[in-house]
Write a structure and sequence with these properties.
- There is one protein chain.
- By secondary structure, this protein is α/β, with parallel strands linked by helices.
- The chain contains nine helices and seven strands.
- Strand 5 and strand 6 form a beta hairpin.
- The structure holds BIS(adenosine)-5'-pentaphosphate (AP5).
- The site of BIS(adenosine)-5'-pentaphosphate has 34 residues, from helix 1, helix 2, helix 3, strand 6 and helix 9.
């Protein structure tokens, strides 16, 4: 496949399955922006905006931010010139109402999704991944103490920021995020399966191995 061809993808997967890691690499390989609702919300929290203040407590408990706020946030991205190039949606949609809202936004623009890539990782593995994750609050760089350590312990390779653990990666919050995923988001598999868009991909192995599987799907379209 021509790496520069516009492509519209959704990355689906449990917390810690590797959506951000893969989304970032795919975004540069395919030359399309990645819209991560989690990153956008964390930025709003940092800015202490009205949206950030509404979202903060919910995120800290591993609960979902209300659909209307999320849909308004995504609609704004869709209206921007970047989205015309194609996009990778990471962490959105997460509920049936969000999936229906996305479908409406795409239909208004005569756009379609190329696929919904579901990154599958067993629950024990995502718990390990989240427990060892370190992030840069300045540039959103993501590391893992075993599988993707920064060159200098505690320091971001990209911007030199000080790495921290995400507040919602505490074990009790992770349990809630996994429960919310099973109840609210996992049913979207069926939503996209009946539309012929769902592509399950094994998310185990190294990030490079997972990327090859994702690229194999994109090449086979
Ligand atoms: P969000 O930030 O989207 O969190 P999430 O979906 O729970 O996903 P994560 O960011 O935790 O994990 P990931 O799958 O991106 O994994 P990563 O690549 O980092 O959302 C946070 C909160 O915001 C939500 O709880 C909710 O409150 C709110 N929110 C966001 N979107 C919303 C929406 N649409 N509606 C309502 N509310 C919303 O990888 C994890 C770790 O594993 C890293 O350390 C990484 O280095 C490592 N790793 C990655 N791949 C591998 C591999 N192959 N092998 C070993 N380690 C690996």
């Amino acid at each position: 496949m021509d790496d520069q061809r516009a492509v519209r993808l959704v990355l689906l997967g449990a917390p810690g399955s590797g959506k951000g890691t893969q989304g970032e690499t795919l975004s540069s390989r395919l030359g399309v922006p990645r819209f991560s609702t989690g990153d956008i919300l964390r930025e709003e929290v940092r800015l202490d905006s009205e949206l950030g203040r509404k979202a903060q407590a919910l995120m800290g408990q591993g609960r979902l931010v209300p659909d209307d706020l999320i849909l308004a946030m995504v609609a704004e991205r869709m209206e921007g010139s970047e989205a015309a190039l194609g996009f990778i949606l990471d962490g959105f949609p997460r509920t049936q109402a969000q999936a229906e809202g996305l479908e409406r936004m795409l239909a208004e623009r005569n756009w379609g999704l190329d696929g919904v890539l579901e990154i599958r990782v067993p629950e024990e593995a995502v718990v390990r991944r989240l427990a060892g994750r370190w992030v840069c609050p300045d540039c959103d760089g993501v590391y893992h103490e075993d599988s993707r350590p920064s060159r200098r312990a505690g320091v971001c390779d990209r911007c030199g920021g000080r790495l921290v653990q995400r507040g919602d990666d505490r074990p009790e919050v992770v349990r809630n995020r996994l429960r919310v995923y099973q109840e609210e988001t996992a049913p979207l598999r069926e939503y996209y399966r009946v539309r012929g868009l769902l592509r399950p991909v094994d998310g185990q192995g190294s990030p490079e191995e997972v990327l090859e599987r994702l690229m194999a799907f994109l090449d086979s379209r």
